[in-house]
Each structure stands twice: as C-alpha cells, then as structure tokens.
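Complex 79.
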Amino acid sequence: MSLISNNVCFNCENLTDSITCGKHDFNVNLDNYCDDHNYKKSLNKTSSCGNCIKFKSDNCPNPTYAAEKLLCFSWVANN
Ligand code: SF4
Ligand code: SF4
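Predicted structure with iron/sulfur cluster bound:
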C-alpha cells in the first residue's frame, strides 16, 4: 500500500489561524479545497514554534503565546 496526500485547505498557504480562507475571506473546513489551492508544506507531527521560520519574528501572528513546543496554523518550516 502506498500513501498519498491531497491538496486541501489544511495544506494551503491561504488558510489562516481562524480557519478561514485568506484569499476568499470565508470560513472553511480543513478538508475543503478549491481551484486556488496553493500548496505549502503542511503541519506534521514534528511541527512547533521551535522549528517555525516566524518564531520570534515580526511575522508571527501570535507573539504573545508562541513558545518552543506550541504551534499554530501559520507555521512555516524553517528549512
Ligand atoms: S484558496 Fe481554496 S484551498 Fe486554499 S484555503 Fe482558500 S478555499 Fe481552501
Ligand atoms: S505561533 Fe505560529 S507562526 Fe508563531 S512561531 Fe508559533 S507556529 Fe510559528
């Protein structure tokens, strides 16, 4: 058996922390998708603020609670 991934809102760069689509400005479910999907490396079991490129930067949308072992939907891999 081989595993495959789907392009859904969960791994789209337009998904915001409030589970809305930043491009279309409406609420979505994580398993929704549309033709404007734009892939970004999605969260995985090793994701955390500690390996997010936005950690301790002005680009972090949640600077007050960001910490090494926490996480949000704006996570972006730092490698
Ligand atoms: S652009 Fe489409 S796939 Fe991406 S978050 Fe918005 S609705 Fe979802
Ligand atoms: S709060 Fe979100 S954007 Fe900020 S460092 Fe953590 S994972 Fe990254």
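The mean pLDDT is 92.
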